[in-house]
């Protein structure tokens, strides 16, 4: 496949002057094409109390904010003791019909003091995203002997009405470090479904693994299908480094080859230290990448435009 050249456009969603639910952090987005060539952006917000919640807003074709509902946030933390009672983030939205949307998200609740434990939840809208209900107060049933610790961010594609694909982040293990802290190791696996709710894991379902010994985080898969293959964007991190945007290609959506992403930190400014949580849309004449920079969204969400040459 042809490489993509990226041109950064800067921050388009900022916590500065934002509604209270996202004044400390706003990002980790999932985006759907919307009316008049604009974008419906589902995003994670963090407020002054440190609560992580989900909401949405609309941008026009030039990435200007045109509408944000006063009803935000649309999803709060779950009931006490549930898997998402301490927060939720990282939406992944899939259109099922003209009126039905599925929103997959990361939730976390009680866990050992030294680590965090994530699960994958699902919310459903039957009025094109105006209101939402949890599919269940429980997470999707994806914890098993192969993935015993936790499920993080996911990328979901409804290829046909009865065939869904999921690329999901799974915690491989936690390893104790010389200073007594614990470091998470997670990478990306693959699953399939007939309805987007019950997922089956093929026997050999490792999709994207670490590319060198110092890498320990490969997460937040976002996949698009091209005529000649598949593209995946990732969030990666190595020992001694900050998060970066990774990239891989595949001929079948199952076996992936890591390649350079073509986008890195700026010399100064809001994304000079780290880049992470990319979400990419393909349009007729360009690719649009939404991503976070320094501080996991404390500096806002920006956009880069990609073209093939």
What's the layout of helices and strands?
Elements: E1 4-13, E2 25-33, E3 39-46, E4 52-59, E5 65-67, E6 87-95, E7 101-108, E8 118-125, E9 133-134, E10 151-160, E11 163-176, E12 182-193, E13 199-200, E14 206-208, E15 215-226, E16 229-238, E17 244-250, E18 256-259, E19 276-283, E20 286-292, E21 301-308
Antiparallel strand pairs: 1-21, 2-3, 3-4, 4-5, 6-7, 7-8, 8-9, 10-11, 11-12, 12-13, 12-14, 15-16, 16-17, 17-18, 19-20, 20-21
What does this structure look like?
- The protein is mostly beta strands.
- It has one domain (4-308): 5 Propeller (Tachylectin-2, Chain A), CATH 2.115.10.20.
- The protein has no helices and 21 strands.
- It has strands spanning 4-13, 25-33, 39-46, 52-59, 65-67, 87-95, 101-108, 118-125, 133-134, 151-160, 163-176, 182-193, 199-200, 206-208, 215-226, 229-238, 244-250, 256-259, 276-283, 286-292, 301-308.
- The strands form 5 sheets. Strands 10, 11, 12, 13 and 14 form a 5-stranded antiparallel beta sheet that branches.
- Strand 17 and strand 18 (256-259) form a beta hairpin.
- The protein starts with a strand and ends with a strand.
- The model has no long low-confidence stretch (mean pLDDT 97).
